[in-house]
Fold each of these.
Amino acid sequence: MTIAVVIPCYNVKKHILSVIASIGAEVSLIYVVDDKCPEESGKYVEAHCQDPRVRVVYNPENRGVGGATMSGYRQAVEDNADIVVKIDGDGQMNPKLIPRFVQPIIDGYADYTKGNRFYSLESLEGMPRIRIIGNTGLSFLSKLTSGYWNIMDPTNGYTAIHSSVLKILPLHKIDNRYFFESDMLFRLNTFRAVVREIPMEAVYGEEKSNLNIIRVLKEFPRKHLIRFFKRIYYNYFLRDFNVCSVEIISGAVLTTGGTIFGLIHWYFSIMRKIPATTGTVMLAALPVILGFQLFLGAVHFDVMNIPKTPLHKFFEPNPPPPFPERAGGELPSPFRGGAGGGVKGGFYGSDR
């Protein structure tokens, strides 16, 4: 099992060597992606790093953190890596956690693992308050957009992914800038990939973020809205048609019809100065209420429709059953330690 690490680099010259030095022996390949860094991080690594696992990839122009990550992904797939981990080069992500991120994928319980800085209340003490507030809003938007209602930390960039899933993802369509983490979740859901969260603590030092808050407020809501409608269309009308599809259509028809009916009679009531009858009010309100209830049913269906069967198992030459029975008929649990239970301690990540 070949594990590769991708490190996007932009103004991280001060930290990159210590990050590389902290990566354990379980990793076979390390890709340092110089995203047209003004500090020339790539050349700095080539000149000062003697680790034979390291390979520097240069982007001819600045493509953003997403574009740099995609460059590293493509190179890792080309070099036949089995699992690709992505960490930042600023020292905020502990490379010692890499085994925790790759183990659920190795054991066949996930296609993609993602860090969660919000699992433990103690880990939030060092996080800036503005990040906590902002992430709460972005988390809910990401749940709507991606369909992964169990993911709490969508902007966390500490991730690991199976290469067979990378091969089917349209990497050229994934956002190149800071929206790429949320966009990855959206793309993964359209293929029904299994995503697990891994508890972690982030380190906040004197590093300066390149994220522009004004740009986030201008661009993120629009991008989330577009991908939300795309996901609903892909999952419930193009690739499948089920109870949720019927609830969405019925809810839209009833809500729209009731609203239009009510507005028309409200207008005539004002113009004629005659109060609407109780029956007219009920004819307008009842479809809206029923439509709202149907939308709630569709949301409940969507929440329960989180992918549960790992996608990469289907790409193995001789794929075993995803959950083979143990003696006595007991199924192995990703949350149980011991034989057949996965990582030591028995915990892979949140599935809330």
Amino acid sequence: MTPEFEILFEWLPAPGVVDPLLASTWARYEFRAGGEPITLALDPESRTVRPGVFGSLLPLAEWVAGNWWNILHEPAPRVPAGSIRRICDYWDRGWLARHSPALSAEGQAYPDLRIFSSGEGNVVQWFPDPSPLPHRRVRFLGEGEVSLSTEALSNALGEFMATVLGRLRESLETGWEGLEEEWRTIGRSAEQEPSLCRHVARLGLDPYDIEGRTLESVETAIRTLPEPLLDELTAAAGADELDTCRKWILAGTDLLARKRNRTAVLDIRRRLPPLRRDRLPWETGYRRAREFRRTLQIPDDYPPNLEEVMETKLKLDPSRDVTIRRLRSARLDAVAGATEGGSAGILLAGSGALPARRFRIARALYALIAGTESGASVFSLLTSSHTLFQAESRAFAAELLLPAQLLHRELAAERYVPEERVESLARKYRVSPLVVMHQIENHRIAALPVPLGGRAETRSGGG
């Protein structure tokens, strides 16, 4: 069986390398994910392509130890796309430093690699060098993306750290003690306070360097919120708004738990095919929307009246079962909940314009029908983050409100869709222009004046 992630290396002598720490960790190394070579590189001088490169692994070990919890548990703030040199001007450079060893290479040849949490595992993404770098002898050529379990990634990185530290201890009498102590601290934290470290990292912070108030907020959230809601909250909220968002969630789940309406949510869940997740979360969302439509006997090329679907098919009253409670944060969109008795409801974080409100409600419907078949109570948090669940819910909402088949019919004779036409379609189907553009581009229906980038998701709030 192909390992999900591995770092392969062979220790080599390092003539001419003055620093003893760098020299003792000199190696020929390869990074692989799902069997794919991440370090596939071109040597311009010899004009040869090889799967690995030469250099010191010490900076990589220091990067792993310094960012351990963030690598494993912090999601991306948006859909990562493009090489570091192309996106670093508008991306959070702090996030890139925590998730890409290329920014901590200290002169070594490390590829443009990014490792981050998807919410239900990890994603390894790598990009080719757009052009040769003047200070580096090789040019990385590989490009790819692999999803893997957090356990597999943790094991691979842990074995790498143990081997590097063993090499340092064997080769040198001193100089490596700081790195070893840092690694021991991580081991102790993993045994004593893994939840605290994980959620601090999901906030984009260093678990070993947080202020007292932030620490108190995280500890309170851990004590009071169920793990699924806590995971989505810390993936989306900033540390300064954690308390405000936590209180809003608790008030919302309490409100929904006290509902005594009789809905068809559990019945629809049971009638739907088992949820099957694709490699790409938006494909999962698209397919689930089509399955939902077929289960409710709504044609794939028909724009649904969302309120009518809720009332007649799900037995949800749009005026009573959808509640609005304002929140001073743009990070949360809604809480959706269904109880084991069949009651269900949706709490929206503010009203917003009609297209945004309909999009949030549609995302909440995904949360309601994506629950277990057992009928157990399920509460879900819809946010602005880019975890798998959030991406699936956005794709579901877009395909439910504006199905691809409908757009194919509308634009059958149009190869190019100007901005005015996008705006017209958005008004006609009561969605945001961004939803229209994403559906056109993601389903390859026609060309747009400004491409969105194919893989980009529909943003929360309907655009």
